[in-house]
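Problem 3 from the worked examples.
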Amino acid sequence: MSVPAAQIDDLPPLRAVIERHGLAARKSLGQNFLLDLNLTLRIARSAGPLNDCEVLEIGPGPGGLTRALLAAGARRVVAIERDARCLPALAEIAQRYPGRLTVIEADALTIDHAALLDGPARIVANLPYNVATPLLTGWLSAEPWPPFYRSMTLMFQREAAERICAAPGDRAYGRLAVLSQWRCETRILFDIGPRAFTPPPKVTSTVVHFVPRAEPLACDRRRLERMTAAAFGQRRKMLRASLRSLGGAELLAAAGIAGERRAETLSVAEFVALANAGGQ
């Protein structure tokens, strides 16, 4: 059942917050503010139970998703915001939810996220478009594994979401799908149209849910990354050609994979076999 936005909390509507603090979204920061609190609450609830864990949020902006996470019962939200203009609006939310919101002014690409959290955590964010992929690959590359988070519920451009969840043979299948699905179970939850945002982006946005695999197939992550980079870097070529620099026919024979195949036909397990056959 949809909950009217006014019932989420007694703070002012987001449009009023943006106007009062002069928070025009900046393209240089990849900002598109999601103002519909019904949608932000839907995202928060999609993340799973929040009352027994902390939540990491990247790029909260004026705090629409932040408010939803707190209203949904998050024990504590740690929000990393690069744009200093948003800090007064976030401070008002912190005052409304005493002791449950920690705001850190920083570039999310440059700090240790795990060190900011105390105990079980989930990552929930409407990621700024310009840093979404590097943030995701950083979380997927976390060591040791299983990682510091129980799940990730993240919003991407639809194209990026399709690349993450693509299956072998799909046009979107590539390096990001292999890395994501090797370490996590991934699932597209729902789309959000451009008109829900200010300013409206030119593309549809999509929420994706990630659950870390407790025991991914044994493999050295760096070797897997090198293997997928070589294979998909020349994806129109047969593997015996695209992987020539990494061992070519000998490597493929060791992994039991035919050299006539192309990268987009290999499963995640087959890429792992190639990486393991490649040695150091």
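Problem 4, a separate protein:
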Amino acid sequence: MLAIIGKKVNTITGGIIKNGVILVEDGKIKEIGPDVKVPDGIKPLKAKYVMPGLVEAHCHIGIWEEKIGWAGSDGNEMTEPATPHMRALDGIKANADESGLEAALHEGITTAQVLPGSANVIGGFGVVIKTAPKTTVDQMVLRNPSGMKIAFGENPRRVYGVDKKVMPSTRMGIAGVLRENLQKAKNYMEKKERHADDPEKMPELDLRLEALIPVLKKEIPFRAHAHRADDVVTAIRICEEFDVEMSWEHATEGHRIADYIAEKKIPAVWGPSLMSRPKWEMRELGYDTPRIMYEAGVKFAIQTDAPGSTIRFLPICAALSVKEGLPYDYALKAITIIPAEILGVDGRVGSLEVGKDADLRLLSGDPLDYMTKCQKVIIDGEVVHSLK
């Protein structure tokens, strides 16, 4: 058993407990509250501020290994525009010496969705992992698959239209590739269902089309990369045509169509933000976008796109959003419980509640103060990082 005492324990969903005590057993939160008794013989861990581990909703750590270059770049299969059968899980380096995972762990980012990159119109399956290093990446998995990556805008147009001189070279082409593959997958799925009792009439196994069936059945959503508002409107249009679900990844122009996104009930994953504007479609990047989306009623998380920007910037990105008017409490939720909900793992992580995984950050002070140190990190009830 493990015991943690915090002068402030922020549960995220149940308010702040002053002088709170958390008891952990078998990797889960057993008790939490101001009057919980620490069992005899247990020496508690203590901190000024205790909160759940952070949740990074969109990154590429482990699949783009830091400090390695070409040899560690496994996020984009840039050989054809539709590769739905690719899996981020197959490209992640799980070892403790992967710098992106190490940085996440040291900041108390205990859960992360790792996605394929955005070179392809359809990039493949994402996966949600815990960031504590294990012998194999399979031991880190929290949800697999967690979504199907698709991409709009400059990236697929540049990779295929400019570099390779093939389709898609336009936004029309991107939409056409996505529609074509969805229709093929729908026809394939319906044929399988019609002939389920007649093996001779069953279509030959097609791994690409099989990969899109969970999307068509709404078992997983599309994770739609788009910076511009018009690109995400196209994504929504196609999702409505095929009756599938999606989240808006990046939402750089979320301020332009916040009311529309709220009306459509599309969750957004905003960021990266603590960086330059390397592409024209990111020209309107600014920290007022979260406030505008919040005021419109958009459900959104904050992300770093690591290693697009450093994953340890996640709480700083939330803090800078507060500076521009986003309510403090929502900013904390945008890096904990809301990304957990968007990723479909909120039953286990994102808040401190009895029965949830014991993933915690023990801090020296306010979680959105850049001077605050992450002193200890606990994942599944085990101390996996301590500040030296």
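Solution to problem 4. The CA atoms of residues 377 and 385 lie 5 Å apart. The mean pLDDT is 96.
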